[in-house]
Write a structure and sequence with these properties.
Blueprint (H helix, E strand, L loop, with lengths): L1 H11 L13 H6 L3 E5 L5 E4 L1 H7 L7 H6 L9 H8 L3 E8 L5 E12 L5 E10 L1 H23 L3 E5 L5 E4 L1 H7 L7 H6 L9 H8 L3 E8 L5 E12 L5 E10 L1 H44 L2 H29 L7 E4 H15 L5 E6 L5 E4 L1 H20 L7 E10 L2 E8 L6 H5 L17 H11 L3 E7 L3 E8 L1
Parallel strand pairs: 12-14
Antiparallel strand pairs: 1-2, 1-5, 3-4, 4-5, 6-7, 6-10, 8-9, 9-10, 11-13, 14-15, 15-17, 16-17
């Protein structure tokens, strides 16, 4: 009853001895496109403008929190109350509700109203409707979120670079492979260079504003080479000026491997046909010599021909075994094995083979070294390398004495196997072709699979092989087991 009477008095203009200050420019007060209220210390609405009345109706005498928030009590944080306390303007972002219950986003600003004595007698609150702005902001945030998700999850390395080739932003895939190198130079991170690349798609995009592509090899984790297709696209501001360039690099390493494998298959088919043809010719020749020996009744001729047949049958056997090993997709059965014991077995085998050939074979191992490996594979690896070393020594006529050294060494955390010989050695061209399909250092007597098998075993064990060789001086093969 008391509240209804107070509201009635307010509506009549009787403010219960409260003299409101004159509000300048009443026309502006009425027509300004925001919700304006004048409130007392109890948050009671004393006066409103037209915009307020159109939305909320005639609510003079009602409490602000009832009208705006549809609450029964004051808001926990009230800018109007803060203005009454300190006499300063306050701004806050609020959500109010229309009489129908629809939310309205507003920016509310409160300012004190003083009487002639300088006392605060009321507060004027101006609430600007920003609902449409908030809707657009949410849409922008959604679009930005979708863009950022796409930017981070797309399966390629993305960086944004400025004109100095500094990376100012990068996506998750880039950080996972190269690290979070924002403000680092592209050429330092990708190529481990100290200067800009001579041919740079980013520089070209800055120069002409067009999209440029190139195929590159970059250095990933642990300097692992990664083949990439690079696409550089300019990013322009609202005035059309190029401010940065987005570089997208797609990893095509696996595709390159498949291309290489397909090329290898073609080379292998051709080389295999040539090798088999050579073996067949050798068998034909041996059979002819054997037949001639029988016709002439010459035992020496028969023996010579039979040796030719046996040698070529051995080549067939070796070729088939190497082919089966190379072609078989298998996962190594890793176990703790003694590398020293394997080398001892092969040392004993080839110590006998080298007798009478002026080849001295030695084994150097000061400890029983063990590695995680597949026993059969590691045995085959050592066997092939020692076999190659023996043939390299046998074919070298420039020296009277030859040696083969089998060494096992430990460097920090890794164990290395070294096979060294002073045989024929290799020139740079031969060394370059070493692990290509069906290339043999033994000429026509080799299958061309031996070193391919060695390389496959090394890769299956996640290890590395290094070759040092010089024509006429010998070769050193080093396998670093990890």
């Amino acid at each position: 009853m008391h509240r209804a009477k107070a509201k009635c008095n307010l509506m009549k203009g009787n403010y219960m001895d409260l003299t409101l200050p004159e509000i300048p420019d009443s026309l502006l007060f009425e027509e300004v496109p925001c919700y304006i209220t004048v409130q007392d210390k109890d948050c009671r609405i004393l006066r409103t403008n037209r915009k307020f009345r159109e939305t909320f109706g005639r609510r003079e005498g009602d409490y602000c929190y009832e009208v705006f928030k549809q609450r029964d009590t004051k808001c926990p944080i009230c800018p109007m109350e803060q203005t009454f306390l300190d006499g300063k303007p306050h701004i806050s972002e609020e959500i109010v509700f229309s009489p129908e219950g629809y939310p309205i986003n507003v920016i509310a600003q409160t300012s004190p109203l003083f009487n002639k004595q300088g006392d605060i007698i009321a507060v004027i609150e101006m609430a600007t409707d920003i609902t449409e702005n908030k809707r657009l902001q949410r849409r922008l945030e959604e679009s930005t979120s979708k863009y950022r998700m796409l930017y981070n999850e797309v399966p390629c390395f993305i960086s944004v670079q400025n004109k100095d080739f500094k990376i100012i932003d990068c996506n998750k895939r880039f950080k996972e492979e190269f690290g979070d190198y924002r403000n680092g130079y592209c050429y330092e991170i990708y190529k481990k260079r100290t200067t800009r690349c001579d041919i740079c798609p980013v520089a070209e995009a800055f120069n002409d504003g067009l999209v440029h592509t190139s195929e590159e090899i970059v250095a990933g984790k642990n300097n692992t080479p990664i083949n990439v297709i690079v696409l550089a696209a300019p990013i322009k501001d609202e005035y059309g000026e190029i401010k940065s360039v987005m570089e997208m690099s797609t990893d095509i390493t696996e595709i390159k491997k498949i291309q290489s494998q397909m090329a290898n298959i073609g080379q292998m088919a051709s080389g295999l046909a040539h090798t088999i043809k050579g073996i067949i010719s050798g068998l034909d020749g041996g059979m002819y010599v054997v037949e001639s020996g029988f016709k002439r009744n010459e035992d020496e001729l028969i023996k010579k021909g039979w040796d030719m047949v046996q040698r070529n049958i051995g080549r067939i056997s070796s070729l088939v075994l190497d082919m089966l090993f190379f072609a078989k997709q298998r996962i190594p059965e890793l176990e703790d094995i003694s590398l020293t014991a394997i080398c001892k077995d092969i040392f004993i085998l080839y110590e006998n083979k080298c007798l009478g050939k002026n080849i001295k074979i030695t084994l150097e191992s000061d400890f029983d070294y063990h590695i995680k490996g597949d026993y059969k594979s590691i045995y085959t690896l050592v066997l092939n390398l020692v076999e190659n070393a023996m043939h390299a020594c046998m074919w070298d006529n420039s020296k009277e004495e030859h040696f083969i050294k089998i060494k096992i060494q430990k460097n920090l955390t890794r164990i290395s196997l070294v096979i060294e010989d002073n045989g024929t050695g290799m020139d740079s061209d031969t060394k370059h072709k070493l692990f290509t399909p069906l290339f043999s250092t033994k000429g026509s007597s080799g299958s061309g699979f031996g070193l391919m098998v060695v390389k496959k075993i090394v890769e299956e064990h996640n290890s590395q092989i290094n070759v040092e060789s010089e024509a006429g001086k010998g070769s050193t093969f080093t396998i670093n087991f990890v």
